[in-house]
Structures are given as C-alpha cells and as structure tokens.
Amino acid sequence: MTMKSLKMRKTLPSRPVPQRTCVACRRVSHKRELVRLVRTASGDIEIDRTGKKEGRGAYICPQRACWEKALKGKQLSVALRSNITQENREKLVKDGIELIKGVA
Ligand SMILES: [Zn+2]
Fold it and tell me: Which of 2, 16, 53, 67 has a CA between 20 and 30 Å from the CA of residue 38?
C-alpha cells in the first residue's frame, strides 16, 4: 500500500442523507433532490434555496406537475399550516417554474 492510497481513504464520509416526502406525489427522496419551501415569520411562503432557513418547511419534487399540484391544491397549505394568499401563490408558481427549468 502506498502513501497516496492511504490519503485518499480519508475523504467521503458516508453520512446518511435525510429523506423527505414530496407534498404533492408523496414520493420519498433525498432532501437535496427536493425543493424546500419555508413559512417565514410573516406567514408568507417562500422557496428556500439554501435548505437552511428557519421555519416550518415542506418539500416538493423539482417537477412542474408536482409543483402545480402542491400549489393549486391544498397540499402545501396543509403541510405548512398556512393559508397562502393568492399573490403569494402566484409568485411561488412563477418562481418555482423558473427554478425547475434550471434543474431539468
Ligand atoms: Zn412530487
């Protein structure tokens, strides 16, 4: 065994990846593969691109079908225990679809 191979073994710790459920299709995925939405202190829902914002969160697949289903139905309101205003909803649909375009 060479010194080089010993050094390489130190990288990549295998930590379990948290699993989250999409509020629209209920599919379970790795947290990183889903888009997080968070309810802010003011009661608005916004997209949390960092995944680290404080507040109650919900996850949606980066797919248009799931995004629209979660927002047009009650899934997101229920998951976040919040009444989403029409204005907030429209903004989320717009931002979400833009975000998804970048992913897909
Ligand atoms: Zn989904």
Answer: 16
